[in-house]
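seq:
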Amino acid sequence: MKTHALLLFCSLILSCWSGAGCDSQKSPATQGARPHPSPEALTCVYESKDGQEFVVRFENQSAWLTLPEGTVVLPLVPAASGAKYSANGLIFWTKGQEATLMREGQPDLSLHEKARRPSSPRANPSERE
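struct:
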């Protein structure tokens, strides 16, 4: 009986360590968040408390963030929780339906997901939607 319990415990530990069957070992992009970085493209609209809207397309481990000054592509980076995208002093961090937009020299902006829809994957990742 002790041998069976030990084998069960060891297999549970190994499955968690390999990421199979244990939520706490999922990648930061999927832990506690909707799985944005997937083979399928996803477009979301986020809104700030003051009514600003931001369209974000998630595809190929990147977030295509549309800002007033243009569209930027942010690669997925490690995060303690949620999905975090960052490059050149710009961070877009999501968890569930909430997101934070952080830009150097500006206050952080809290956002809430207003809408989402699946999108067709781009034939060419550099192609604009």
